[in-house]
Recover the amino acids of this structure.
C-alpha cells in the first residue's frame, strides 16, 4: 500500500510536470492562433488592405469610413485587449511570443487611450487622402486578370458617391470639434480633384488617367472586340455618372468650408492641442522626448551639419559663405536635369542604375535579403503637383507586384542631381525596400507585426541607409556627399520647424523662412515641407530621432563587442523583427550583444 502511494505520488508529479510543459506550449499556440484570427478579421474589414496585399477578394468595395464603423472598431479593440490579458499567461510565453504580446497590448492600449484624439487629423490634404487614394489604388494595386476583375474595377467607381458621402460626414464631424485645415490646403486638394475628373470621358480630348489605366489593363486580356467595347462603355458610364458627381460633391463641400478656414498652422489651435501634440510626438518617435527637447536636438544637429557642409565647400574650392554656396547649388544649371520628358527619362534611368549598383553590394551589408523585386517609377500626373518628392510603395504579399520607388519629376529643379543617390538609398535599396519587403516575408512571427507601423523605426532606418553608403565610399563625388548632408539637414530642420509650428506657434511663413535660411532647398521645396509639417504633425520628427537611435545602438554594440561586432548581424537584428518601437529595438540589440559576449 505504501508503495502504491509513492507510485501514485510520482505519477502525479510527472503528470503535473507534463501539464506545466504543455501549458507553455499551449499559451504560445493559443496566442499565435489569437493573432492570426485578429489579423484575418482586420483584413476582412478592409477591402483596400486586401487589395494592397494582392488578394482578389472584395475587389468591388471600399473601406467603411463611417462614424458607426469607427466606434465598432474601438469596441473590437477593447474586446481583443481584454481577451489577451485574461487568457494569456505572459510569463509562460517564449521570448518571441513575449515580444508579440507586448507589441499588440501596447499598441491597442495606446489607441484606446488616445481615441479621444482620433479625429485630430485632416482626412484630405495635399499629401494624401481619399480623393487621391482612389485613383492610386485602382491604378497601382487593382489588378485586372479577368473580366470579373474589370467589373470589380467599374463597381468600385460606381461606389464612389457613397464613399465620398462618408468622407464629407467625417469632415463635418471634425469641423464640429474645431478641426479645419488651414486655407492653403483647400486649393491644393480642389486642384487635385479637378485633375482627376479632367480629360475624356469628362471634358477635353486627352484621356483621364483612370480611363487610360483601365483600357491598358483590359487590352492585355485580349478580349473579343464586343466584350472590350462593353467594358469600356460601362466604365465611361461609371466615370461620368458616379465618379464625377462624387468629386464634384467633395469640391463643393471644400469650397464652402474654405470660407470658414483661417491661416493658423499649428495643432495648438485644437481643443487640448498641446496634449494632442505631445501624444503625437510620443507615438511618432516612440520616446518620451518633449517638444522642447526635440526642438533643441534639431538646433544642435543643424549646426553640426552646417559644419560638415563647410568642409565640402573647401574640397570643391568654393569661395564664399554657406548661404552663397546654397545659392550656387540652387541656381547653377549643372546640378539639374532640364525640365523635358527626355531629361526626366534620363533621371529615371540614372536612379535605376544607382539602385542596381547598390544591389550588387548587399552581401556586404545583409544576411537576410528580400525576395520581392523593386522598380523605379515616376509619380503619376494626377498627383505629382502636390505629392512629395519621393516615396516608396511596398510590394504585394506574394511578390507578384514589386516594390516601387516613386520619384516626383513634376519640376526637375526640385530633384537636384546631387541628391539622387541619397534619395534612392533611402526610398529604395537599402532603405524602405529592404526593410518593408523583408518584414512582410518574415516567417515565424504574427502577421500583424509584418504590417505594423512605427514611424521612427521606419524612417530612422531610411535615413540611416543614406549614411551607410558614405561609409562604403559609394557617393560618387563631393557634391553627392553634399546631397546626403543636404537631405540629413532637412531632417534636422524638421525637428526645429515641426515643434516650432505645433508647439511654439510659428506661422507657416516663419517655417518657410527657417528652411530658406538654413538649407539649399528651392522656394517650392521649403514651402511644401512646411505644409507637410502642418497637415502631418509630429511625423517629420521620426527620421532624425530614429536614425540617431540606430547609430547610437550600433556604436554601443561596436564598443562592447570589439572584434566580434559584425555589421551584417547588427542589420539582421534591426530589420528581421518587423517594425518595432525604439525601446524594444534597444532591448533586442542588448540581447544580441549578450549572446555574442
Amino acid at each position: 500500500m505504501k508503495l502504491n502511494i509513492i507510485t501514485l505520488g510520482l505519477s502525479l508529479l510527472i503528470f503535473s510536470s507534463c501539464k506545466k510543459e504543455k501549458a507553455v506550449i499551449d499559451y504560445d499556440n493559443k496566442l499565435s492562433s489569437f493573432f492570426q484570427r485578429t489579423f484575418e478579421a482586420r483584413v476582412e474589414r478592409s477591402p483596400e488592405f486586401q487589395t494592397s496585399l494582392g488578394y482578389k477578394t472584395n475587389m468591388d468595395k471600399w473601406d467603411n469610413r463611417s462614424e458607426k464603423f469607427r466606434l465598432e472598431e474601438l469596441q473590437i479593440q477593447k474586446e481583443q485587449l481584454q481577451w489577451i490579458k485574461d487568457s494569456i499567461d505572459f510569463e509562460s510565453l517564449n521570448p518571441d511570443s513575449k515580444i508579440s504580446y507586448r507589441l499588440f497590448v501596447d499598441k491597442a492600449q495606446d489607441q484606446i487611450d488616445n481615441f479621444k484624439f482620433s479625429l485630430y487629423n485632416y482626412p484630405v490634404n495635399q499629401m494624401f487622402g481619399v480623393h487621391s487614394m482612389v485613383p492610386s489604388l485602382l491604378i497601382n494595386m487593382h489588378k485586372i486578370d479577368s473580366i470579373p476583375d474589370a467589373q470589380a474595377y467599374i463597381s468600385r467607381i460606381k461606389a464612389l458617391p457613397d464613399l465620398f458621402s462618408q468622407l464629407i460626414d467625417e469632415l463635418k464631424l471634425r469641423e464640429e470639434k474645431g478641426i479645419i485645415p488651414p486655407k492653403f490646403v483647400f486649393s491644393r486638394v480642389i486642384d487635385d480633384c479637378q485633375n482627376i475628373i479632367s480629360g475624356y470621358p469628362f471634358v477635353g480630348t486627352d484621356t483621364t488617367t483612370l480611363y487610360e489605366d483601365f483600357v491598358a489593363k483590359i487590352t492585355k486580356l485580349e478580349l473579343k472586340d464586343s466584350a472590350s467595347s462593353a467594358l469600356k462603355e460601362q466604365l465611361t458610364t461609371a466615370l461620368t455618372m458616379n465618379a464625377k458627381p462624387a468629386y464634384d460633391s467633395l469640391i463643393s463641400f471644400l469650397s464652402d468650408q474654405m470660407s470658414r478656414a483661417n491661416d493658423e498652422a499649428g495643432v495648438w489651435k485644437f481643443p487640448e492641442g498641446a496634449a494632442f501634440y505631445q501624444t503625437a510626438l510620443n507615438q511618432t518617435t516612440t520616446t518620451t522626448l518633449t517638444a522642447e527637447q526635440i526642438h533643441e536636438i534639431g538646433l544642435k544637429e543643424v549646426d553640426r551639419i552646417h559644419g560638415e557642409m563647410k568642409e565640402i565647400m573647401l574640397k570643391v574650392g568654393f569661395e564664399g559663405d554657406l548661404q552663397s554656396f546654397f545659392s550656387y547649388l540652387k541656381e547653377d544649371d549643372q546640378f539639374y536635369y532640364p525640365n523635358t520628358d527626355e531629361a526626366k527619362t534620363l533621371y529615371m534611368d540614372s536612379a535605376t542604375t544607382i539602385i542596381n549598383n547598390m544591389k550588387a553590394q548587399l552581401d556586404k551589408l545583409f544576411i537576410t535579403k528580400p525576395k520581392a523585386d523593386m522598380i523605379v517609377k515616376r509619380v503619376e500626373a494626377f498627383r505629382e503637383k502636390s505629392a512629395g518628392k519621393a516615396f516608396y510603395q511596398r510590394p504585394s504579399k506574394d511578390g507578384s507586384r514589386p516594390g516601387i520607388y516613386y520619384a516626383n519629376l513634376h519640376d526637375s529643379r526640385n530633384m537636384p542631381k546631387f541628391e539622387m543617390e541619397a534619395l534612392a538609398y533611402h526610398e529604395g535599396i537599402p532603405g524602405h525596400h529592404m526593410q518593408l519587403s523583408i518584414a512582410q516575408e518574415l516567417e515565424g512571427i504574427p502577421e500583424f507585426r509584418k504590417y505594423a507601423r512605427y514611424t521612427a523605426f521606419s524612417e530612422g532606418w531610411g535615413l540611416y541607409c543614406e549614411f551607410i553608403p558614405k561609409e562604403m565610399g559609394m557617393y560618387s563625388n563631393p557634391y553627392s556627399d553634399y546631397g546626403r548632408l543636404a537631405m540629413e539637414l532637412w531632417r534636422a530642420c524638421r525637428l526645429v520647424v515641426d515643434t516650432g509650428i505645433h508647439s511654439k506657434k510659428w506661422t507657416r511663413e516663419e517655417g518657410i523662412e527657417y528652411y530658406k535660411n538654413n538649407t539649399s532647398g528651392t522656394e517650392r521645396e521649403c514651402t511644401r515641407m512646411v505644409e507637410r509639417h502642418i497637415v502631418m504633425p509630429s511625423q517629420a520628427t521620426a527620421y532624425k530621432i530614429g536614425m540617431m537611435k540606430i547609430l547610437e545602438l550600433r556604436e554601443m554594440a561596436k564598443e562592447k563587442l570589439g572584434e566580434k561586432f559584425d555589421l551584417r548581424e547588427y542589420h539582421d537584428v534591426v530589420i528581421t523583427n518587423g517594425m518595432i518601437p525604439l525601446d524594444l529595438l534597444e532591448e533586442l540589440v542588448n540581447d544580441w550583444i549578450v549572446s555574442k559576449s
